[in-house]
């Protein structure tokens, strides 16, 4: 028995008696798959929302605090009264 | 926005139904061979197939020209490989291969490789890449599984049966 014959015999053994496909398979698959899809969509929406909120918060903070302006010096006292 | 999503949902449902109608029988046969259950009583194979197809459905819009059958088969094989040890007839599992299954004499890994290589006709290199093992190992395992399938070892079967009967 050479390799090809052996492979053919193996295929024949495996292809005997195919199982019947249950009729409710499609509905069950749709239910589970739809749920996975909805979860993923919701998670993506939530992440985008979070990103937008962070961007807005940063902009507001930067506009009010002006972090790029040099703070007034504290070592030299202001000159007054001369 | 809503309209576009509804259209996309309808298109996906249509395409996916055609895909399932064509592929479910073959994939269920492969899954039943993997779990070594009887052809007419295969709850574990059905569960495996349902999860793989649900995954394919969820990823349908992101396949980008990839073969959905290939995707489903990959998912099925990997899910089986990751749970084979404790669920589908590994040394520690409580379930035994059903005697009416064609591949009852083989270990879960031999079944997986034999089904991928012979029943599904996946190339040796692809099988090796999918399961993360060297090509030579896949070749050797496939040869051994073929030999076991064609010439079932009578003595080994007797000792296994004896071990199962003896209380330990």
UniProtKB/TrEMBL annotation, chain A:
**Among its keywords, does the record have Transmembrane helix?**
yes
Write out the transmembrane intervals.
46-64
- Give positions of region: Disordered: 1-20
Q: Any keyword Membrane?
A: yes
Q: Which UniProt keywords apply?
A: Membrane, Transmembrane, Transmembrane helix
Which residue windows does the record flag with biased composition (Basic and acidic residues)? 1-15
Please state what the protein is called: Uncharacterized protein
State the species of origin. Streptomyces fuscichromogenes
UniProtKB/TrEMBL annotation, chain B:
Is Transcription included in the keywords of this UniProt record?
yes
Source superkingdom: Bacteria
Listed GO biological process terms: DNA-templated transcription initiation
Any Pfam family the entry gives = Sigma70_r4
Sorted keywords for this record are: DNA-directed RNA polymerase, Transcription
Q: Which GO terms describe its molecular function?
A: DNA-binding transcription factor activity
Matching InterPro entries, A to Z?
RNA_pol_sigma70_r4 (IPR007630), RNA_pol_sigma_r3/r4-like (IPR013324), WH-like_DNA-bd_sf (IPR036388)
Decide whether keyword Transcription is in the record. yes
Start and end residues of each RNA polymerase sigma-70 region domain: 102-146
* GO CC terms in record: DNA-directed RNA polymerase complex
According to UniProt, the name of this protein is DNA-directed RNA polymerase sigma-70 factor
The opening ranks of the lineage are: Bacteria, Bacillati, Actinomycetota, Actinomycetes, Kitasatosporales
